[in-house]
């Protein structure tokens, strides 16, 4: 059993799918145990195992590679109605969050216990990560930071120009008056 399944058992209930309410079974994939729904094919991943389950590695991509990879990525379309579902561990409703900024994948997240991935969502996030999605997000945030900094510098330069010009005019006026 996974750590989270043990936590659920300690709380006196078995883990069940937050979407279809069927019992979750433990599956091992790449040496990692995850709770899986046989009916709807969703996957429960606790926070401690999520990075490994999504196969996130600290790889670095060049700007050209990021641009090329971004063109290849197509976000996952959503056709079913939005529904908030309970955490399989604590039974509290989970928040819906977009995984990353540009993946297009919306997952259900319990801030305390873990994340629920509907059928094919975990594969789509893995694809997003493999195609450089995380590096692309870092690049966009860096570009936004530089743009914000540039705007602030322009504003400050303009403010200082006005202040200096005003001080110069006052000094010139005082010198003409002879004070």
SSE blueprint:
Elements: H1 3-10, E1 25-29, E2 32-36, E3 43-46, H2 47-53, H3 63-72, E4 95-98, E5 106-110, E6 114-117, H4 121-130, H5 133-177
Antiparallel strand pairs: 1-2, 2-3, 3-6, 4-5, 5-6
Helix pairs in contact: 3-5
Notes on the protein architecture:
This protein has 179 residues and is α+β, with helices and mostly antiparallel strands. The chain has one domain. It is 45% helix and 15% strand. The N terminus is likely disordered.
Characteristics of this structure?
single chain, 179 residues, alpha+beta, 5 helices, 45% helix
Q: How many separate domains make up the residues?
A: 1
Q: Low-confidence parts lasting 5 or more residues at pLDDT below 50?
A: 1-10
Radius of gyration: 26 Å
Element order: H for helix, E for strand:
HEEEHHEEEHH
Q: How many DSSP E strands?
A: 6
How many helices?
A: 5
Describe the biggest sheet? 6 strands, antiparallel
Distance between the termini: 88 Å
Helix content: 40-55%
Strand content: 15-25%
Derived structural class: alpha+beta
Reading side by side through the largest sheet, how are the strands ordered? 1-2-3-6-5-4
What's this model, at a glance?
Helices cover 45% and strands 15% of the residues.
């Amino acid at each position: 059993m996974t750590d989270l399944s043990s936590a659920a058992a300690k709380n006196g209930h078995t883990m069940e799918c937050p979407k279809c309410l069927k019992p979750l079974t433990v599956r091992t994939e790449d040496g990692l145990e995850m709770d899986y729904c046989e009916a709807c094919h969703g996957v429960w991943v606790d926070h401690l195992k999520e990075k490994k389950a999504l196969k996130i590695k600290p790889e670095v991509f060049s700007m050209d590679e990021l641009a090329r990879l971004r063109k290849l990525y197509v976000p996952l379309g959503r056709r079913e109605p939005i529904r908030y579902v309970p955490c399989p561990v604590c039974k509290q409703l989970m928040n819906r969050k977009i995984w990353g900024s540009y993946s297009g994948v919306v997952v259900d997240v319990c801030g305390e216990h873990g994340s629920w991935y509907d059928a094919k969502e975990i594969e789509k996030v893995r694809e997003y990560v493999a195609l450089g999605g995380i590096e692309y997000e870092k690049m966009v945030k860096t570009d936004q930071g530089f743009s914000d900094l540039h705007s602030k510098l322009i504003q400050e330069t303009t403010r200082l120009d006005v202040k200096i010009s005003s001080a110069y005019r006052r000094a010139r006026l005082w010198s003409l008056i002879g004070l």
